[in-house]
Amino acid sequence: MFERLREDVSSVFHRDPAARNTFEVLTNYPGLHALLLHRFAHWLWNLGLKWLARTISTISRWLTGIEIHPGATIGRRFFIDHGMGVVIGETTVIGDDVTLYQGVTLGGTSWNKGKRHPTIGNGVVVGAGAKILGPFEVGEGAKVGSNSVVTKEVPAGATVVGIPGRVIIKRQTEDEVRRKEMEERMGFDAYGVTEEMPDPVARAVRSLLDHMHAVDDRIDSMCKALRTVNSEYQNGELPPLQEEDFDCVRDPGEEKQG
Ligand SMILES: CC(C)(COP(=O)(O)OP(=O)(O)OC[C@H]1O[C@@H](n2cnc3c(N)ncnc32)[C@H](O)[C@@H]1OP(=O)(O)O)[C@@H](O)C(=O)NCCC(=O)NCCS
């Protein structure tokens, strides 16, 4: 239980650059309070104590402005930033590492019982005020723009904006493709930052890594030129980056992603 709590708290640090310390996060983040109360309410709901579960959910709504039906299934490291006005319906299923901002509705469009709310894949980010309505899937890693209204399935990795939500296809730049390859090679996000996280230190590290790649490429082409003079010159591979070298920049509680 404490392991889960630690994970929930550390996910706040990962996704909100304004978070300063654990005490501040535990006392001032309504998204975290709503999540903890939901985990309790969901447990009661599964035990069949439905009235008590709904009452906990209502108290949570009074305290946080976030309404999560106790029947909703929520994965690990879920984070609601700011929170006010978030509504999550009974048959919603949310994967791991999902982020919602204030005013998001994960709702239904029918009064029939049964699955009527969305299923949100791992790593999805839903912008402020967005409405996702209906029993369809939002694929892993998708982004939903603020104030969008989404009523149809969203493919994994897509970005959806507008009313009605439309997928905007963004071609990856060469830098982005190379970063992705490097993350895959090392098994985790070496840059530790997404476009939504304006952490100046992480951005500086990203620039240094980009520069390092540019220098690597330059040295590579110099070596190629020199090998035309001496075929034996610098034939060996450079030593690869080891994952252990990055342990010092990871949170102790953080699990390996992916
Ligand atoms: C959807 C989102 C993730 C897209 O980010 P991105 O991949 O960096 O995309 P860009 O900013 O390059 O925008 C791409 C296009 O979509 C448009 N767009 C972006 N967000 C939009 C939105 N919410 N509604 C309508 N259009 C949007 C841009 O104007 C741009 O259009 P163009 O190609 O015609 O110029 C981001 O805009 C967003 O809404 N994030 C949510 C953030 C949030 O809610 N923060 C709350 C903090 S309190």
How does the SSE layout of this entry go?
Layout: H1 2-15, H2 22-28, H3 30-47, H4 50-64, E1 67-68, E2 73-74, E3 79-80, E4 87-88, E5 93-94, E6 99-100, E7 105-107, E8 119-120, E9 125-126, E10 131-133, E11 137-138, E12 143-144, E13 149-150, E14 159-161, E15 166-168, H5 174-186, H6 200-229
Parallel strand pairs: 1-4, 2-5, 3-6, 4-7, 5-8, 6-9, 7-10, 8-11, 9-12, 10-13, 12-14
Antiparallel strand pairs: 14-15
Helix pairs in contact: 3-4
Region (Disordered): 236-258
Enzyme class: transferase
Family: Belongs to the transferase hexapeptide repeat family.
Biggest β-sheet description: 6 strands, mixed
Radius of gyration: 22 Å
Pick out the low-confidence regions.
254-258
And the CATH topology of the largest domain? UDP N-Acetylglucosamine Acyltransferase, domain 1
Number of domains: 2
Q: Could you characterize what this model shows?
A:
The chain is α/β, with parallel strands linked by helices and 258 residues long. It folds into two domains: 2-168, Hexapeptide repeat proteins (UDP N-Acetylglucosamine Acyltransferase, domain 1, 3 Solenoid), CATH 2.160.10; 174-249, no CATH class. The chain is built from six helices and 15 strands. The protein has helices spanning 2-15, 22-28, 30-47, 50-64, 174-186, 200-229, and strands at residues 67-68, 73-74, 79-80, 87-88, 93-94, 99-100, 105-107, 119-120, 125-126, 131-133, 137-138, 143-144, 149-150, 159-161, 166-168. The strands form three sheets. Strands 3-6-9-12-14-15 form a six-stranded mixed β-sheet. A five-stranded parallel β-sheet has the order 1-4-7-10-13. The protein has a four-stranded parallel β-sheet with strand order 2-5-8-11, with no helix packed on it. The radius of gyration is 22 Å and the shape is elongated. Mean pLDDT is 85; it is low at 254-258. The protein binds coenzyme A. One of its GO terms (cellular component) is cytoplasm. Its main location: cytoplasm.
